[in-house]
């Protein structure tokens, strides 16, 4: 889904991480506990942030101000670096950038739009002091500019969070002293900080001395990817880091000694970090040690002296030996505890640090775990996430959907860290406020909440969808509970179908007892060896096999009975019953077995829903081989053969079946075809086959057996990936029309169209495909037409609406550029499927989104009216736990809650819910029962389902539903 920025060479970080240390010499902080504690509360947390939480956004001076040589500003090392031919950058420069020096008022209005309570920005050292020397006279134009900005922010009730140094060192200091390689800069920075505190500190409560010194030391002075482009290697990076830490400490002491009492502010330093996990969850002691070293090599390098014991982590001292600078005892005291809170940067620049990490480690986007590590490692400090965000490509423009969801992920992880893990996070700055000059990526990469068109002189700020989303989160103070998280009390009606659904039964249609089919007479133990031997000439009478001979049926259905379910859905095997696809060879043994299953269900007072055709990808799509060879569902021959097959099954099994499903998930079956034309033709023939099978039952059997006949559609909900974009809303509706409307409209029409519209595809679908054909220069769309006779045959051929619902999909329009570049033909609906990273996922990455069930039920009910009952014929989730399957239990409860809301609050004519499935036979493990070595064991979800069924839902009194008893069985088909 995402592509990480490509580094131009191997970062020094990898050397620090991978070279390791002697285990006996390494000591690890309490941060190791972060990998030992299980992750709890992985589901989405509907809650608000603490009162007064400091929502904000931020920028840096060099990236946004522009005016690089205006009003007395001196050049910075970055000005020199991007203008230098040696830098090998694009033609982009930050000479104008976002023009925030001139358009700062527009930036403030952007903050007002967001509704944030803070703004993190940096002062430009070379703008205030062109030669870098704070002992001299400041540039008054710069002082005036920052004073105006701070005063305007305060007038808007926005807290200024001011960074002294965000990488733009005066070039004069680089030329005169060699930059941060020289300890002279420690004193110069102290003087610069004192000036800033004295000049602006009366109106500033939060100061940040410098931003992400790791990248300055490594990228700027180690490998030369950043300004000043120094390639001094490991030794130089270590010296630079040492000086940066001491410079920060000096600045903190200046504030503490001379300004804190009067200004009552706080000072910290922004430290950047990645996060790593042991690969594949292998939390061995060695792997955790390696992860701890990785964190110490990046974040701990700077955090341990400041928040720890005043010195470097032992792992770094052991690793680098004599190269590692050392703090004297006095310096340790000067450095230790020089931060009033922990300021953290978490974004793509930091995540790239781990691209080459190996030896059992995986880099992940887990801000929650990182915050937990900081809590354990550094004594539970107050934390400000001073930079949190991701990036998009410039071509994305205003529609930054992926960045929006990653913002949601990071903010939600912060909420979890606060509410669940007890981390004291007091603020979050979404990075960045506006698009700017993204260092070595120039303008190709964008991180702003507001889009800036750098080709236009006015640099207009336009809110991206991420800005609209952030505004909504800020206004709500997080993710408060709403109707999605609210539980309702109530019961489903007595005639509600509580079901369990399975696929094709494992047919063992030979009788268990051979004595009833073998006429020979046997004697036992004739020679003392305990064997049976035939008696010569001895013959006995036999009887046909009885249902009692199939011992596995009673045992299997006993599991079903123990769930408390009233209904059971299973599929027949078409290719087993009619191997040739016609009546030339009928497998009566298989039909007898199915009859026995159905009779046993009746004995247990359970109703049957039988699926005639359950497509499978394993063998011939589940078709008899001759039909598959002859073209399968692209051939009308298969339509006629299905009618014959259905008629046989009705005649042989009809007395014991209450519901028939002709075809299971035809909308998933058509996905196997490679071209859109074949997909449309297969769907066309599947619809005709269903209609013919339905009419056979109505003509020949309905008056006697009164079963209802339908087809079952895979019906996951489609949510607009970006709710702020009309194109995404249209794509989601289009997806639903192609998935469901394609099959339901021809059979039911819609409540808006009237009776005359039955027998045709959705008009919206036809219109869209015709427009697509015109754009591609084609004569017409590839969607087939029904004849008048076919329309007549199709209309009204559903006894109920059957939906298989499992999850929710995020849907966006298919990008035009993607469609032209990819070799594969885009889907006819031209929709892309995305995923919300905050959704809880199963082992096979099925998202747990219970609210989607209610939405799909309402969509179907609104489009097709409430006359026909709706049954959820399959719904479930894989859970790898063999006993206490908490994920499945949460799925059951939450999805049935949404079903109850749809029925009770929305008036949906919902009359059944079937849980998929009874027993595990193979992965993925969806079963209510586990099966190991032919022994079945109930999972905890069985008890939960049984209790919900017994109560008829979620009643206030928690009592058993009085109308259900062994002698009273629902007969919904008489409704």
Structural account:
The relative contact order is 0.08. The chain is an alpha/beta fold and 975 residues long. The chain has 34 helices and 33 strands. Helix 17 runs parallel beside helix 18 (401-419). The strands form 10 sheets. It has an 8-stranded parallel beta barrel with strand order 2-3-4-5-6-8-10-12, surrounded by 7 helices. Strand 29 (870-875), helix 33 and strand 30 (910-916) form a beta-alpha-beta unit. The chain is elongated. The longest helix is centred in the first third of the chain and has 26 residues, at 233-258. Mean pLDDT is 90; it is low at 1-28, 818-823 and 966-975. The chain is 39% helix and 16% strand. The chain has 2 domains: 32-476, TIM Barrel (Alpha-Beta Barrel), CATH 3.20.20; 497-529 and 551-815 and 826-954, Glycosidases (TIM Barrel, Alpha-Beta Barrel).
